[in-house]
Every structure is written in structure tokens, then in C-alpha cells.
Specification:
signal; alpha+beta; disordered N terminus; 420 residues; 5-stranded antiparallel β-sheet; 22 strands; 29% strand
Length: 420
């Protein structure tokens, strides 16, 4: 009886202790935030961007490691809290406010002599994730950043800037990168005397921007996307809600390059090529999927982009079934020059053969599933996971969609050692 009389008190003690532990644990798991301001002043005379990274908050990361390109990230200044070791800048901020400065070499010339990053007296085009390199942090797991990017032109010049982000009341880009504790800018940027066209296309805030000039087809490009982007988004349902397309003429590279929520396209590239493919749609698929290949899977990445550039045109009646079949025949002939797909970099003939393999894979999935599934289901899964794609991953997703094992992704066949 004496034991029973004490039992309620014991239960009360246990309950209170459990509540306290739960409260402490919940409090410890709450997110803490600090502010990061990236600031860049672009200077055509020196060809440099003067960059500052400023941190503010009650708690800051103990260490930030910038993975730099020593030829492009130069002249660091962070007092005694910064150490440069070959391709790393190791920063140990102290206090509630800390900053480092460096300069970024904007111009980057390709072997062809054209540029994929360039500044002139009137404009600049570059990748913000090149200017602000990858950064690893050492910090509590509950510590997250709120980040902005501020871009200024040369002193005394009225320059504007476009990036694939919205702006706050101060004119700063509000950066976002879900899942990342340290957010940094990513994607293409254009600044200077620029002209743009903008519209909301199927929920995506779409901007076509280029240096001022009458010979840039901003409106034509916007109209093309108004026609094709909704169909593309039926396949890639997680397509970004913001898209920036940067266009320019020589001396910029005469092709297309994708980035985060953005892409660059040379102004002379046709929206639909004579072979019925579309460089614009090709790069948009890259934007949509966000995938990259391992040492032998670049053909998957490039093949999907090219295949769906054809498919989207077919589905939107941009090309007829007859023209579509003609395009496949030409790609099949070109692809004979590259029997082995399992290479590090997908050349033109490799991508051409990849398109044919993926078209056959699409048909095989539809036939095995009796029309219940297609390659669309596979690429939706790849785009949702993003990151690295491998042959093993593609085979697994394809077999799951088909409901059976498909021989089309046999390694010997892909390497050109046997016929399907």
C-alpha cells in the first residue's frame, strides 16, 4: 500500500522529465539563421569583379572553405582569418560580423576563341556560380543562411542586372537553394545596358535578356517558349518557377549552355534547326533534369536532352510525324560513327546514337507495360532525384516502368559489341 501511494508521484516525475527533455531537444533542433550578402562590382576597364562576402548573425560558421580557381579568384583579403592553399581559401570568421574580399577574372575564352564569360564597356555575361565558387562550411547542423546578391556596374554607369531570382525592396537578388544550409548564387547573369522581354508561362516567370540591339530575337524566343514550355513541363513537373534566358552575339560562344534556372544561347542559333532538333529545347531539358553523368553516362544526359527536344516539337505539332521519322533516320546514320556509348564525353555522333537507343527504350517500355508507362516516367524520376545518373540507375528505373527486364540497356549492346 505504501508503494502504491508513491506510484503517482513517480509517474508525475517521469512525465515532467520527459517533457523537459523533449522541450530541450525540440529547441536544439530549431533552425538558426545568419545573413550572407554577396556583393559584386563589375569593372570593364580591369575585366574584374570586385567581390565581397559579408556574414552577419549571432552564430556564424566556424570555417568556410572556398574551392577556388587560382587563375580566376585572385587578390584575396580577409586579414589574419583567411588562408590560401592552392585551390582552397580557408576562412575562419570571428564575431557577429565578418567579411572577405577578392577579385574575379570575368573573361573566359574557349579554345575556339569565343567566350563563355565576358565583360565589355556596355555589358557583362557570366555564371554567378563561377564568380562565387563552391563553399563548404563547418557549422552546427541547425545553422542556415539567408542570402542575397547585390550587383553593381562601373561607377558612374547606369547598369542593370538580371539573374534567375526575384529582387527585394533594396534591389538585391533573394537567393534560394532548398536543402542547402549555405546558399550561394547559381546560374547565368547578365548586366549592363540590356533589353529584356518577360512573361509568366505556365507558372514560370520567364525572362529573355540580351545586350541592347535590334538584331536579338527576344520576342520570338518568348513566343517559342510560350508554345513549347507548357508541354515540356508536363514531363518535367518540377520545372523551376523562374527561368532566365541570356542571349548574345559574337564574341560569345556560338552554342548553348545550361545553368541553374537559366541558360545561355547564342543569338544566331535557330529555334528549330534544319535537322528538326532545337538547341533551345535541348538546353531547357538540361535545366529541367539537373542531372550529370558518371564516367560512362554522359550519353544519357545528352541523349535525353536531344530526344526530348524532338519529342516536344512533335507533341506540340512543331514538326509532323513524317519529319520526326526523318530526323530519327538521320540521327541513326550519324550515330553509326560512334558505336560505343560508354565514354566520358558524348560527342555529336555519340549523342545521335543515344537518341536512337532512348527512342527504342521508350518503345520497349510502352510495349512491355501495354501503354501504361513510357520513358516520360523514367525521366520524371531522374529529374526528381537530380544529381548523378548512371547506367545502373537508368536500367533500374526503366525496368520498374516496364514491369520487366529490358535487354535494350545491355552493356555489350551499348558498347557496340552486339546487336539488340
Amino acid at each position: 500500500m505504501h508503494y502504491l501511494s508513491r506510484f503517482p508521484k513517480f509517474c508525475f516525475f517521469v512525465a515532467v522529465s520527459f517533457w523537459l527533455l523533449t522541450a530541450v531537444s525540440a529547441n536544439a533542433s530549431e533552425k538558426q539563421f545568419y545573413d550572407v550578402r554577396y556583393k559584386a562590382r563589375l569593372d570593364p576597364e580591369s575585366g574584374l569583379a570586385d567581390v565581397e562576402i559579408l556574414l552577419k548573425g549571432d552564430t556564424l560558421p566556424s570555417t568556410l572553405t572556398l574551392h577556388i580557381d587560382p587563375e580566376r579568384h585572385i587578390n584575396f583579403d580577409g586579414n589574419e582569418n583567411l588562408t590560401i592553399e592552392e585551390d582552397e581559401a580557408i576562412w575562419k570568421p570571428e564575431g557577429k560580423t565578418a567579411a572577405i574580399q577578392y577579385q574575379f577574372v570575368i573573361d573566359e575564352k574557349k579554345a575556339s576563341g569565343s567566350y563563355d564569360s565576358r565583360i565589355t564597356p556596355k555589358w557583362a555575361i557570366l555564371r554567378t556560380d563561377k564568380m562565387i565558387p563552391p563553399i563548404a562550411t563547418r557549422a552546427p547542423k541547425t545553422l542556415y543562411s539567408r542570402a542575397t546578391l547585390e550587383v553593381d556596374g562601373p561607377k558612374g554607369k547606369d547598369w542593370s542586372a538580371r539573374a534567375p531570382y526575384s529582387k527585394n525592396a533594396l534591389g538585391q537578388f533573394k537567393l534560394k537553394d532548398p536543402g542547402r544550409r549555405l546558399v550561394r548564387p547559381k546560374g547565368w547573369m547578365i548586366a549592363g545596358k540590356i533589353g529584356s522581354r518577360q512573361d509568366i508561362i505556365d507558372g514560370t516567370d520567364t525572362v529573355i535578356a540580351a545586350p541592347l540591339g535590334k538584331d536579338i530575337r527576344r520576342q520570338d524566343t518568348l513566343a517559342f517558349l510560350s508554345w513549347t514550355l507548357p508541354e515540356l513541363k508536363k514531363v518535367f513537373t518540377d520545372f523551376p518557377d523562374q527561368l532566365l534566358v541570356v542571349m548574345a552575339r559574337d564574341p560569345m560562344w556560338r552554342g548553348g549552355l545550361s545553368g541553374t534556372r537559366s541558360l545561355y544561347m547564342h543569338a544566331d542559333r535557330p529555334l528549330i534547326s534544319g535537322n528538326r532538333t532545337s538547341s533551345m529545347l535541348h538546353e531547357l531539358v538540361h535545366v529541367a533534369t539537373g542531372i550529370h553523368g558518371d564516367e560512362e553516362s554522359d550519353w544519357i544526359v545528352e541523349g535525353l536532352a536531344e530526344y526530348y527536344s524532338l519529342q516536344i516539337l512533335l507533341r506540340t505539332r512543331g514538326i509532323s510525324e513524317h519529319r520526326y521519322q526523318q530526323a530519327l533516320k538521320k540521327l541513326a546514320k550519324w550515330g553509326q560513327e560512334s558505336p560505343n556509348l560508354l565514354v566520358k564525353r558524348s560527342s555529336g555522333p555519340t549523342t545521335a546514337r543515344a537518341v536512337i537507343v532512348l527512342q527504342q527504350l521508350d518503345e520497349a517500355i510502352q510495349e512491355a507495360s501495354k501503354g501504361e508507362a513510357s520513358l516520360d516516367d523514367v525521366v520524371k524520376a531522374l529529374a526528381k532525384k537530380r544529381g548523378e545518373v548512371t547506367l545502373k540507375k537508368l536500367r533500374k528505373l526503366s525496368n520498374e516502368a516496364a514491369g520487366t527486364e529490358l535487354d535494350i540497356l545491355n552493356r555489350d549492346f551499348l558498347a557496340g559489341k552486339k546487336k539488340p
